[in-house]
Amino acid sequence: MRASSFHSKTNGLAGCGNNQRDLFDHSVIAHVAAKTLVLCALHAEKARRMMQAREARGIQIAAQSEITYNDTQARWIVPSQTSAKTYIVSLNPPSCTCPDFKKCAPKCKHIFAVEYHLSQQVNGTPLPVPPEQKRQTYKQQWHEYNLAQTNEKRHFIELLRALTQGIVEPIQTFGRPRALFADIIFAACLKLYSGMSGRRNQSNVTEALADGLLHKSVHYNTLSKYLEKKELTPLLKQLIAQSALPLKAIESDFAVDSSGFSTGIYQRWNDAKWGKARTLYGDKQPNEVSRKDWVKVHICTGVKTNIVTAVEVTDAHANDSPFFAPLVSATAENFTLEQVSGDKAYSSTGNLKLVLLKGGTPYIPFKANAQPDAPKAPDVWKKMYHFFMFNQDSFMAHYHKRSNVETTFSVIKRKFGERLRSKIETAQINEVLCKVLCHNIVTLVSAIYELGIEPTFWTE
Predict the structure, then answer these.
(1) Shortest CA distance to 305 belongs to which of 375, 189, 225, 401?
(2) Which domain holds residue 75?
(3) Is this model's pTM higher than 0.90 or not?
(4) Which of 350, 355, 403, 445 could form a disulfide with 155 if both were Cys (CB 3.0 to 4.6 A apart)?
C-alpha cells in the first residue's frame, strides 16, 4: 500500500464550510450569477491540475484543427484528435457528444477548443501556450513501508487473533461438540493470507495450535464445511466493521462501489461485465452467463487508508443503488461522515438525503436524463443538481476521491485472489468476506508503522 494514501487532505470552499449545512446556507446560483465563486488555495490547485490536461488539448485542437459552425443546429462541429470522428458542441449550456463529457460532465477538451476558437476569431486574442504537463508523484515513506512489509505476517497473526478471541460463541445445547467459530475464522483467514490450498495450509494450522493461537486443530475438511454455514456471515461482517475502528480518527471521507469476484465456473468477471453476455431470469441462455459465475461485493471504504468500513455481498446482477443506504448507515455508526462519493449508479433522492442526514456531503454525479426542474423534484435534488452543474471544478475535485474504492478492490484481488474456490453460495459469500477481513488487517499493519496507531478492537 502506498504510504501517500495515508496523508491527510483538507477540502472545502473558501469562505464556506465543509458540511452540508454550510453548503445550503449559501446560494449556489447567486455565486454563479455574481461570478464570485472562488476556490480555496488547495481546491484551486486540485481543480487546476484536473482541468489542465483537457484545457491543453483544447488549445491544441483550436490551433491545429478546423472548427466549423452549423447554422441549422446552432452547434459547433469539432474534429477528434485521434480519429476521423467529429463531435457536436454547444456552449449554452455547455455540452458535447464526446464520451468524456457524457461520463464526467465537466468541460471537455472540445468545449475548451470552441471557447479558444471564438476568442481568437472574435476578439483576435492569440492562443495561449499550452501549460506544461507534469505527472503528479507521491513521496514514499520507504523506511516505514519496509518495516510494515517485513513484519506484516507477525502482525497479521497477532491482529487476527485479537479480533477472533472476542467472538461470542453461540451456546450449544445438544449434538456433537462443534468447532469454535473463532478457530474457523482464524484458520480460514490464515489460509487466504498464505495463498495455499486447505491441505497445504494444514501445516500453518498445526503451528498456530502449537503457539496457542487455536483452541483445537481445524481439519481442512472441517474448514470447508463450516464455511457453508450461514451463521458465519454476520460474524465476519462484525469483524470487518470492528477491524476498521482503529482508523476512526483518520477516516472521514468515504467512497462506495461494487465489483465482482469470479467463481471460476464459466467465465471471468471482467469478460461478463464488459462483454455482451447476460442472463435472463437466472437460466443459462446460449452465449450467456449463469448468475453463479461470480458474486458481487458492495463496499464502503475510507479514501485515505482504503480500509473497508462496511460490506454487502449479493448475486451477480444485483443493482448497486439499493445497497448504498445500508453501507453508509453502517459506516455512520462508527465514523464521522464528511463526504461520501459514488458514481452515477447511486444517483437518487433517497441516497442524497441519507448522506445529508448523516452529517456528510454527497458527491454523486447526476445522470444525463436528470430533470431538476420537474414539478415533483425534491429540494435536496434541485440544490445538489445546481451545485453539480455550476461548481464543476470543485465537485469533480471531491468526486475524484471515488477512485480510491477502485484501488481497494485492486489490492484485495491482487493480494488474496479475484477467484473464489468455494462452490456453494454461502461458502462463496463467507470466503469473499474473509478476503475483505484480511485486507483490513493488512491495512492496519501498514497504519501501525506509517501512522503510529495502536489497534484496539474489543472495548466491552
Answers:
(1) 401
(2) 51-127
(3) no
(4) 445
